[in-house]
Specification:
Elements lengths: L5 E5 L3 H12 L3 E6 L5 H5 L2 H23 L10 H24 L4 E4 L3 E3 L2 E4 L2 E4 L2 E4 L3 E3 L25 E5 L3 H13 L2 E5 L10 H11 L4 E3 L4 E5 L2 E4 L4 E3 L1 E4 L3 E3 L29 E3 L10 H15 L13 E3 L5 E5 L9 E6 L17 E7 L4 E8 L3 H13 L18 H10 L2
Parallel strand pairs: 1-2, 1-7, 2-3, 7-17, 9-10, 9-15, 10-11
Antiparallel strand pairs: 4-5, 5-6, 8-16, 12-13, 13-14, 18-19, 19-22, 20-21, 21-22
Helix pairs in contact: 1-7, 3-5
């Protein structure tokens, strides 16, 4: 490779793609190696697929509502194979744009399976020397060790099924399980969610109650229930009962860390161990994204990739995981964030109806516009926790989480001028807290 300082990035998901792009912008020489498709799980099998299908489920939900109101009369004929084809076409366009973006800063993109061999990377029969290495190989779905698990689908298979399943048995009780259940129940599937402990156990109890009553009331939730066996079109519960329907595993994710085994230190869950600079146990080797465990979120992976890249280019910076906003993508979005630094202080809780914001008007008649629940440190004028259900909760909570991340008192928010109705809810939330 000559005398140039070469950075190699393995994996082009959110962490690797943004990390390599940042390195390129900083004038560094970069080789980005991708095993399959650029943009990783998010675009090709994960978040973007969920977003695409959620857009359709929201449309179906709105169509149903407008038909019930009587000012639109329409029937929807869903063609799942055409949905899949159009998602595929969109993915192709985005892959090209993502590759062009990296190449625009003179990065080289190589497709092939990489192997680490000391201070060299083996790929496609070549041996590439690196000065600094970023491992961003992501994660994959966890498959439980049960009989017939090979019959179970995961998020990797959503675009491979031929048609909308008549019956679907989702195993798992987290956010992915919730989103998949919402999508396919809206598309017309009869959906069971089988949860070993509690459904959405990390979500506020009032928020969970609202989701089950107003958003996913046609989904059957079986808590404290486990399976002993899967079939092609069935699951067998541990008590012996049998449920018809395709099994779908949403039981967590496993880091793709095998590439670095015996090369860098691991955490107990086999994710790659990194410090606050995204640096591994080897000074010139970094890791970012899902392969490091922790937050399994695209924005966090991006943040980690950029942090790693800047440190690789000798621009020292640290990662901060405070007040990370999250969302459950349903027919009405659910968003939440917490400032973990606010401890041992008295807080008050305020619950507000969510009646403002975009796409809320036609939900007012049925009273299912959502709710916003806020835990507030009134002495220091700061938000500790927000749980919001509304069509605009994604942007609302993202804006407010920024104030939380920079430790800003809420009275500084008076300089914020909202655009009606897109950020209208922010003003309503703050107004109820301190104006």
């Amino acid at each position: 490779m000559g005398d140039d300082m070469t950075n190699i990035v393995i994996g082009s998901g959110p962490a690797g793609r943004l990390g390599s792009y940042e390195l390129g912008k900083l004038g560094e020489e970069v080789i980005l190696i991708e095993k399959n498709h650029i943009a990783g799980t998010c675009l090709n099998e994960g978040c973007m697929v969920i977003c695409a299908l959620s857009d359709i489920s929201k449309f179906i939900d709105s169509n149903r509502r407008f038909n019930e109101y009587g000012f639109i009369k329409s029937q929807i004929d869903i063609s799942y194979d055409k949905i899949v084809n159009k998602i595929g076409e969109t993915q192709e366009l985005l892959r090209k744009l993502n590759q062009m973006e990296n190449e625009s800063v003179s990065n080289q993109v190589i497709y092939g399976e990489a192997k680490i061999n000391g201070d060299h990377i083996e790929v496609n029969g070549e041996s590439l020397e690196y000065d600094k290495l970023l491992i961003a190989t992501g994660a994959r779905p966890h498959i439980p060790d049960v009989k017939g698990s090979e019959y179970g689908l995961t998020n990797k298979d959503i675009l491979k099924i031929d048609d909308i399943p008549d019956k679907l048995n989702i195993i798992g009780g987290g956010i992915i399980a919730c989103e998949i259940a919402n999508i396919f129940s809206t598309l017309g599937s009869e959906v069971n969610v089988i949860v070993r402990s509690e459904f959405l156990k990390e979500i506020d109890a009032d928020i969970k109650k609202y989701i089950l009553k107003h958003i996913m009331n046609d989904v059957t939730i079986l808590e404290h229930t486990d399976i002993s066996e899967c079939g092609k079109n069935k699951v067998v519960l541990t008590e012996g009962d049998e449920l018809e329907g395709i099994p779908f595993f949403a039981t967590g994710r496993v880091p793709n860390s095998e590439i670095a085994k015996d090369f860098v230190d691991f955490n107990p869950d086999n994710s790659i161990k990194v410090n606050e600079f995204m640096q591994t146990s080897r000074d010139n080797v970094y890791a970012a994204g899902d392969v490091t465990g922790g937050w399994q979120l695209t924005p966090v992976a991006r943040m980690e990739g950029i942090c790693a890249a800047r440190n690789m280019a000798n621009y020292l910076n640290k990662i901060s995981y405070n007040s990370v906003p999250q969302c459950i993508s349903l027919n009405t979005e659910v968003s939440f964030v917490e400032d973990e630094r606010i401890k041992d202080v008295e807080t008050e809780t305020i619950t507000l109806p969510s009646i403002a914001g975009p796409n809320a008007f036609w939900k007012i008649l049925t009273g299912d516009t959502g709710l916003t629940k806020i835990e507030f440190d009134s002495e220091n004028n700061k938000i500790k926790k927000i749980n919001a259900i509304s069509p605009s909760s994604v942007s609302d909570v993202a804006y407010l989480s920024y104030l939380m991340r920079i430790d800003s008192p809420l009275d500084e928010y008076c300089d914020f001028l909202e655009i009606h109705p897109s950020t209208d809810t922010n003003y309503k939330i703050i107004k109820n807290l301190w104006l």
